[in-house]
Amino acid sequence: MLDKQDFLTVVKNTPLVSIDLIVRSSKDEILMGMRVNEPAAGYWFVPGGRIFKSETLEDAFQRITETELGTAYSMESADLLGAFTHLYETNFAKQPGISTHYVVLGYQLQLDIDINQLPAQQHSNYRWFGKHEDLSEVHPNSQAYYPYLR
User: Fold this and answer.
1) pTM over 0.90
2) Rounded CA separation 7/111 (Å)
3) If one looks up domain 4-144 in CATH, what number appears?
């Protein structure tokens, strides 16, 4: 694992690759968490995480679902919505002048989960958002998934 300064150098100079989990309930709602970390702190955002160096996509998916949802799921239980670009003016360290660039693989999972049992590492709160709800507090990068939902 890189120390903070080395990781900031990576963020400054390269895109990061990550997986976003678009969790859809049987009521056709999308799971969102209130982000506590930059970038996107203070916004409702879908769960997700970075893929680590030398980690297979399958292993990353299982690790991220376990970390973000409390249960490890296999990629076979999800549908790939596509690849997305997420650009932020901020970074995890709140250092001025350093933006963050993610190439995100968006995977949709059909799950009814108890939001009271979800981990609180990256999100301070969770809720379900319907397609026709006010999305003004949902980060635009998470709003972008709605047109792709199958």
Assistant:
1) yes
2) 33
3) 3.90.79.10
